[in-house]
Amino acid sequence: MFAFIIRRTLQALVVMLIISLVGFAIKNKIGDPVRDLVGERVTPEEREQIANDMGLNDPFLIQYARFVKQAVKGDLGRSFLYNKPALEVIVKHAPATIELLIGSALIIILVSLPLGVYSALKPRSLLSRFTMSFSTLGVSMPVFFTAILLIYLFAVNLQVLPSYGRGETVDLFGNGYWNTGFLTVDGLKHLILPCISLSSIMLPLFIRLIRSEMMEVLETEYIKYAWAKGLSPRRIWLIHAFKNTLLPVVTVFGVQMGLTFAFTILTELVFQWQGMGFMFLEAVQRADTSLLVAYLVVVGSVFVLVNTIVDILYGFINPTVRIAGTR
Amino acid sequence: MKTKLQKFKESYFFYSFKRDRVAMASFIVLVIFLLMAITAPWISSMNPYDAENIDIMNSEIPPMWMADGSPEFILGTDNMGRDMLSTMFYGLRTSIIIGLGAVALQAFIGIVLGLSAGYMGGKTDAILMRIADIQFSFPYLIMAIFIAAIFQVAFGVGSYERLAVPLLTIIIGLSNWPIFARTIRASVMGEKNKEYVEAARVIGFPRFTIMFRHVLPNSLTSVMVIFTIQVASAVQSEAALSFLGFGMPVTRPSLGSLIRAGQEYIFSGSWWITIFPGLWLVIFVLVINLLGDWLRDVLNPKLYKG
Q: Rounded to two decimals, what is the model's pTM?
């Protein structure tokens, strides 16, 4: 186990190294740090002077080491678009995205669990067949198109729900970092359409997964034994069978939340949602390289961190992972 | 002696195809879509890429069955005055070219790496599969968006748009190859200890020949299934990238950039500019997915569960 943790951590470090190299390369080869700092209105001599003062003419390794040292301290450069430290900009935009993820995770859980279990128990019923045939359609619908259809239906035609922005938000900790939309009616209304669009692509997948896992479990010996013991159907389904469907479902859920994060960028664009994805697109359009690099580094690190922790935890639960990793 | 056609007609593959109505219908729709894409320059009433044909006075005309519609533009016109139907033919063509190109690139990278990893084993295997693992731990869409963003900042928006087709192909190709590598590796591991491979080795064929001429053809079944599903996913990725503004420019739109361009017009009531290309895309991806599902059931290879 110890060797496994070491190996996994080393791998994470290598990936971080690659991410930081890419980030550094973009920052220094593509971006123009001098322009980020002083804009266009300086003479070439002053420009050269500033570049020298900032150490932009130093050897590659020294500059790279400086970049990493600053990044570890949390200094990822300044965003000229917002005129603030890039990390602060990202941290301030993160809650909007996180709330979107939480909302759609709730929808996924609340809808897919009952529907999946139901269609496993009653595979021939009308609702189950309806669900199954619609799940392929659901997978084929791009998130942004679902979002546009929802806006057209509920915001333009029926005019019952807002189509863009976060609405009224409440400052959760009183320091301006986490403005939540969960606590006001207006904020919740603004959350509905984005969350539905975001969950729409994952729902079919989870309904199918839960259904097939549940059906598999229902065929096992211990369920037959439970029937033979004369337990009530509800007890068998919900306590004996359902519990054992959950482990694979939770694993897949973790993996898919990563992909859902990618889809938040699309959703945020359609709904003009002021989250990290929207900010990222803005940074690319306006060529704010510092912010772009900061975003890449932060998102990359979060992914690496989460993946590493999950893998290590998984190693504790399931020893075959540790052995398979050795090869 | 039976001809190949006869053999095919008697095969289980064709038999199950004839029995599955969904697969047949999807296949027919897919063929129609492909024909439309190939013949786009001849069947569309105008060339939407040529600025000379575009008359801004014709912009936002609704489909012909609506009050202000004109029979000249069956599905109406977009905000620039282009005939929707012609633009959708051309958009479909672009989407398909990029989708197929990207999956071909994915398959090429995946097959070469997966085959080498599976056949050679040892250190090569460990290193190559570790790389695949690492990339797999980032969702493909995030990879694609990041690479696209970096390319766009590096090339500048102007040259990015000019080179959009090859760049998108490369981006989507690079972002989603590990699934091919893993699948091919798994089936190569099963093949490489069979007798015919040993025989080939005893004869003294070089390793390269054995890998590509003997082992590879026998591991291709699983690739076929993945290939189908990946085309659907690549077309979707292209649409997503174009929608985000990392894709085809509005002057040479793919389906994704058409949806992007029409998005804001739903507020003024011109829903057809965005809804038609969207439905077009959904139907296209849906039939590929349905065919992929059917192929998986028929060929039933042991797929890598991603």
A: 0.86
